């Protein structure tokens, strides 16, 4: 719904149900990760970060499973990018640290390239524009070299790039 209409928000009751369910579940598996992932556009960056801290605590050993791993990395990258875009740099550095602790395997190239681009965005937003632009351009160039033209175009046209 949120992707169709930006005005759609989570009601207080829906937010409470989501919170109560996720925070009362002892171990987060694929269902909880999916629920959190699809709910994330409704959360502020600070609330999203708080939920991610809970996710990391409750799904540590499950994140190494391949299906969970991709979803886990997607959630972390989305949080990293959202924090940078909102200039919530403390949260951005939290995501950066967690990503680096659970860094992508060599066969997870897409995540590595998007992470390089996101690091460039962070550098740019914090005044290291030249270094940031180079990282972002490098990421786009890698997408192009790999024939991932839609991804290259998407990241080339992102407003802050």
Automatic annotation (TrEMBL):
In terms of superkingdom, the source organism counts as Bacteria
The membrane-spanning stretches of this chain are 28-48
The record's listing under InterPro entries reads: HTH-type_regulator_Rgg, Transcription_activator_Rgg_C
Q: Which Pfam family is an annotated match for this chain, by its short name?
A: Rgg_C
| Keyword annotations from UniProtKB, A to Z | Membrane, Transmembrane, Transmembrane helix
Domain (HTH-type transcriptional regulator Rgg C-terminal): residue spans on this chain: 1-156
**Protein name per Swiss-Prot or TrEMBL:** Transcriptional activator, Rgg/GadR/MutR family protein
According to its UniProt entry, this protein's organism is Streptococcus pneumoniae
């Amino acid at each position: 719904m949120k992707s169709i209409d930006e005005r759609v928000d989570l009601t207080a009751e829906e937010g409470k149900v989501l919170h109560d369910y996720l925070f009362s579940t002892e171990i987060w598996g694929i269902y909880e990760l999916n629920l959190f992932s699809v709910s994330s556009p409704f959360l502020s960056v600070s609330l999203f970060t708080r939920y991610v801290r809970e996710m990391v605590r409750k799904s540590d050993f499950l994140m190494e499973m391949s299906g969970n791993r991709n979803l886990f990395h997607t959630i972390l990258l989305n949080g990293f990018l959202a924090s940078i875009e909102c200039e919530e740099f403390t949260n951005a550095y939290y995501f950066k640290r967690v990503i680096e602790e659970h860094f992508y395997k060599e066969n997870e190239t897409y995540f590595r390239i998007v992470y390089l681009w996101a690091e460039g965005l962070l550098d740019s937003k914090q005044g290291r524009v030249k270094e940031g632009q180079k990282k972002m351009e490098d990421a786009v160039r890698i997408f192009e070299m790999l024939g991932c033209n839609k991804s290259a175009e998407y990241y080339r046209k992102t407003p802050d790039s």
